[in-house]
Amino acid sequence: MKGRSLVSINDLTKEEIIALLDLAEEFALNPRRPVLENLVVATLFFEPSTRTRLSFESAVNQLGGRVIGFSEASSSSVSKGESLKDTVLTVSNYADLIVMRHPLEGTARYASEVAPVPIVNAGDGANQHPTQTMLDLFSIRKTQGTLDGLTVCMVGDLKYGRTVHSLLMAMSHFRTRFVFIAPPELRLPAEYKLFLDQKGLPYEEHTSLADHVNDVDILYMTRVQRERFSDPVEYERVKNVYVLHESMLHGCKPGMRVLHPLPRVNEISTDVDPSPKAYYFQQARNGVYARMAIMASILGRA
Ligand code: CP
Predict the structure, then answer these.
(1) Among 51, 56, 135, 167, which is best to mutate for testing ligand 1, by the most ligand atoms less than 8 A from CB?
(2) CA-CA distance, 96 to 76, in Å (whole number)?
(3) Beta bridge partner(s), residue 101
(4) pLDDT at 225
């Protein structure tokens, strides 16, 4: 991966994904080593973030590198009308790698085409979030002992949820059976179902949560993405459509784990948090190790 951008999870082969997960395991065992010494990473966040930006920055700091950047467009010269291209070209003078989040689909790909340094997509609109996918895969492999032959149930906003779109593409390498649970307004877009059809992977679509959690290995809850709705009335109608309570987990497989890319709003009740099946905060921690592996590989320090 040396010198390459990571824009879509499809930029990685199955073998590269597994190698990154193995490297992330090594970082999890021993995260404090100076492999990014003398390197600078820029984090350009045009959209809010807690986990992605701070786990990238924590990863760089723990590995001995330096971080520059901004956490909102209003504190950059974009607010004066500077173009994305000019911003990326300028920041390329100051950093060895750019991590970028932007509300518009396709911006990370565009940035990767104009920038002389690698771009890592930290989320572009409803499109892709490949580094989240790497930490999701890390979490699934860690909790299940394998990525192969699992049943993964994705719940909530499957239309706008970029973590869902990236994860299902990555899991398609591993003979996954998918169960999709969403209201009609937030169903998985046709292009992703076509993708699974072409791969010959089985999937089911349902609207009720309670009836479908007992035979799955991973329950991947998602937030309804308020920021993607053009009509606030429609958001209000679907925002609390699924709420997972601890009582709904009693019939689940013993090894089943609840994942959520976070932030959550109401979709997982806090009574789930003490359950051994709740894994979402450890999942967020795993983001540091996955991002260490990604940056070390791209920067040729793996
Ligand atoms: N999972 C995720 O992308 O969280 P943030 O929006 O807080 O970065």
Answers:
(1) 51
(2) 19
(3) 45
(4) 76
